[in-house]
Design brief:
The chain has 415 residues and is mostly helical. Helices cover 74% and strands 1% of the residues. It is built from 19 helices and 2 strands. It has a two-stranded antiparallel ribbon with strand order 1-2. The longest helix is centred in the first third of the chain and has 32 residues. The protein is globular. The chain starts with a helix and ends with a helix.
Length: 415
């Protein structure tokens, strides 16, 4: 099989594993009486993202080839996800949070490092084949988003959104990927002279960047914006599904297929990547980051203003804007780090950027979102509009502060 096709299939399966539950686990938790615990299930993704990728990266560098470690991680992630599904099936609405959360958390601890390991395997294979990673990898990576979307559609159409079978889907895909890794090209283990120290592997040297005002402000705002990342993943589909209780919306497409409606966000994400070069050239890095921040305001605000009936266009607009909100800051932020850090700590700085957004920020955001939703929940249900407007106000405050406070060195950005 052609190498690019093999790597495209790898990315397809990698993200299909995630797409099977990420956007609809909140619906399942709500059904079994754990609506107040949704934030914790998203918090754990951020927590394990802080340290598990670095730990597995050290193991892959020193002892176990990356493709083999990728398979082992998926084996463990799949088995624990299936265990969570079995527990949910046997206990139903009597499921205990501590047991379900523990099984889910262990699965997450093994899955999250595979995102980086998948990239490592792909880069290694492409370089070994004499290909250009900058040119050849992006089209391969697009199949990851396609896999994510296909998994979302599958659990929606099959009715798995509201039960433990979404975990079954994810677990089975993980086990398939475990088997598939045996067909992947072998990745080399670093020679003694090439092995990173533990300090380098965990990106600790990059923390010295906090001594510089521009970088300190940037990383702080990265965490503040990271707060927004998991809010809609955790609460958007439960929100859309809540319209089932209203007779005028119960038969609308959005309510019947909330996950398919939500998948427009991932479609937008794929398309918006193509717009970044134009916006970067026209408006510059800081302004592109600002566009992303204010896009989060509209992302949340439109969700609050819309409904699955005559207001469904507001939902659709929110999904389309997600691509700008997510891609523009991640890509421009990564480029800012690349242009303003010394080559000796550039990789560590990129790791710190991801840690602040997807680790610290996403963890805090999941908890804060849960608190906001819980505080606005009564016997009559959740005051969803108020919640979304609170999230929008937060994003607006972060965007305004960033515009006023962040003043990067233009000479470095233009180098």
């Amino acid at each position: 099989m052609n190498l690019k096709v093999r790597l495209a299939l790898l990315n397809y399966l990698e993200f299909a594993v995630w797409g099977a539950y990420l956007t609809c686990v909140g619906v399942y938790l709500t059904k079994i009486g754990m609506a107040s615990m949704i934030g914790y299930f998203f918090m754990i993704q951020g927590i394990v993202s802080i340290f598990m990728p670095a730990i597995m990266g050290i193991i892959a560098d020193r002892w176990v080839p990356a493709q083999r470690l990728l398979g082992l991680c998926h084996l463990m992630a799949g088995l624990f996800m299936l265990a969570a599904a079995w527990y949910g099936y046997t206990e139903g609405n009597n499921s205990e949070f501590a047991v379900l959360f523990s099984l889910y958390s262990i699965s997450m601890a093994f899955y999250m490092p595979t995102l980086a390991l998948t990239n490592s395997v792909a880069y290694s294979a492409l370089v070994k084949a004499g290909m250009d990673t900058v040119k050849d990898f992006p089209p391969i990576r697009v199949f990851g988003t396609i896999g994510f979307i296909c998994a979302m559609w599958f659990v929606d159409i099959t009715g798995f959104m509201s039960n433990q079978n979404q975990f079954v889907t994810s677990g089975v895909l993980s086990l398939l990927l475990f088997l598939y890794t045996f067909t992947l090209p072998a990745c080399p283990i670093a020679r003694d002279g090439d092995k990173q120290s533990f300090v380098d592997a965990f990106g600790l040297k990059a923390f010295s960047l906090f001594r510089h005002k521009d970088m300190a402000i940037f990383f702080i705002f990265s965490a503040l914006l990271g707060v927004c990342l998991q809010i809609t993943n955790g609460f958007a589909t439960p929100y859309i599904e809540s319209f089932k209780s209203m007779t005028e919306y119960v038969d609308t497409f959005g309510v019947q297929h909330a996950n398919i409606l939500y998948s427009l966000s991932q479609v937008s994400e794929t398309c918006c990547i193509l717009l970044i070069p134009f916006f970067m050239k026209r408006f510059g890095i800081k302004n592109v980051m600002l566009i992303a921040m204010f896009a989060w305001v509209f992302r949340f605000g439109l969700l609050g203003a819309g409904n699955p009936g005559n207001g469904v266009w507001l939902f659709i607009a929110s999904m389309i804007i997600y691509g700008v909100a997510f891609d523009f800051f991640n890509i421009s932020g990564s480029l800012f780090v690349d242009k303003t850090t010394d080559a000796s700590i550039r990789s560590s700085a990129q790791g710190l950027f991801m840690m602040m957004t997807n680790g610290v920020g996403a963890t805090v955001g999941a908890l804060i979102a849960q608190v906001v939703v819980t505080l606005h929940t009564s016997s009559e249900g959740v005051e969803w509009k108020t919640c979304w407007y609170i999230f929008a106000a937060y994003a607006l405050a972060v965007g305004v502060l960033f515009a006023l406070v962040f003043r990067p060195n233009k000479d470095k950005l233009n180098k």
